UniProtKB/TrEMBL annotation:
<dbReference type="InterPro" id="IPR003439">
    <property type="entry name" value="ABC_transporter-like_ATP-bd"/>
</dbReference>
<protein>
    <submittedName>
        <fullName>ABC-2 type transport system ATP-binding protein</fullName>
    </submittedName>
</protein>
<keyword id="KW-0813">Transport</keyword>
<keyword id="KW-0067">ATP-binding</keyword>
<dbReference type="GO" id="GO:0016020">
    <property type="term" value="C:membrane"/>
</dbReference>
<dbReference type="InterPro" id="IPR027417">
    <property type="entry name" value="P-loop_NTPase"/>
</dbReference>
<keyword id="KW-1133">Transmembrane helix</keyword>
<dbReference type="GO" id="GO:0016887">
    <property type="term" value="F:ATP hydrolysis activity"/>
</dbReference>
<keyword id="KW-0547">Nucleotide-binding</keyword>
<dbReference type="Pfam" id="PF00005">
    <property type="entry name" value="ABC_tran"/>
</dbReference>
<feature type="domain" description="ABC transporter">
    <location>
        <begin position="7"/>
        <end position="236"/>
    </location>
</feature>
<keyword id="KW-0812">Transmembrane</keyword>
<dbReference type="GO" id="GO:0005524">
    <property type="term" value="F:ATP binding"/>
</dbReference>
<dbReference type="InterPro" id="IPR003593">
    <property type="entry name" value="AAA+_ATPase"/>
</dbReference>
<keyword id="KW-0472">Membrane</keyword>
Amino acid sequence: MTNENAITVKNLTKTFGDFTAVDAISFEVGKGEVFGFLGANGAGKTTAMKMLIGISKPTKGEANVAGFDVRTQAEDIKKSIGYMSQRFSLYNDLTIKENIVFFGGIYGLKKSVIKAKSKNLIDELGLHDEADKLVGSLPLGWKQKVSFSVALLHDPKIIFLDEPTGGVDPITRRQFWEMIYREANNGKTIFVTTHYMDEAEYCDRVSIMVAGKIEALDTPKNLKEKYKVDSMNKVFLKLARNIE
C-alpha cells in the first residue's frame, strides 16, 4: 500500500463453483476518500466487500486494506476497520447504552474510554431520552445512525458501509450522509456500497459494477460528461444497456 492509498485491489476474484460473483476487479481508494461501490442488487458488491474486510478469502487476485494483506492478515484488517452490515448489526434486545458497552468491550476498549465514548455518542445523536430504551424500539433511521456510530468506537482508519441507507426515508438518508462527510473530513476513508444511484453524487469517486465486473470508475462529474447524461442513474442505465 502506498502512502496515498487506504485500499489497493488487483484482479480480485471470487467464484462459487462455476459461478463468478466477482470477476478480476482492480481499483485503489485514497486515504480520506469517500468511495462509492455501486451496482444493482446481485452485481457482486457485497461479495467484494466481504473479501476486503477479511471474512471471505479471494479465489484469485490480491488486495491490501489499511496496510494488511486480505489473504494472510485478515485479523489485522478486522481490528483496523469499522464495518456496518447491510442488515442492522446491533442487538435489538439491548439498550443503546448496553450495545455501546458490549461493542466497546469487543473492540478491547477500557471501561473509562467506553464511558466517555458512550456520553459523546449519545450527545452527538441527541439520544438522551432514548439511551436506556431497547434498540429494537427505535425507528430504522435511528438504528442505522447508532450502528454507524458504534462502528466508529475504536477509531478505525477505514469504514466499510454496506447499503447503509437501505429502507430509510430521504431526510434520514441525507442526515446519514452528513455523518459520513464528518468522518471523511476527520481523515477517515469511507467505502460505501449502495444501489441508490443518486447517492453516487455524494462520493468523491465511484465504481459501477455490472455482473461482477467494474464497468466504470471515475468521479461522478466525469462519468456524467463521458456518457453525456445529467444523472448517475442514467450513467448506470447506459452501462447496463451496453453490457446487454
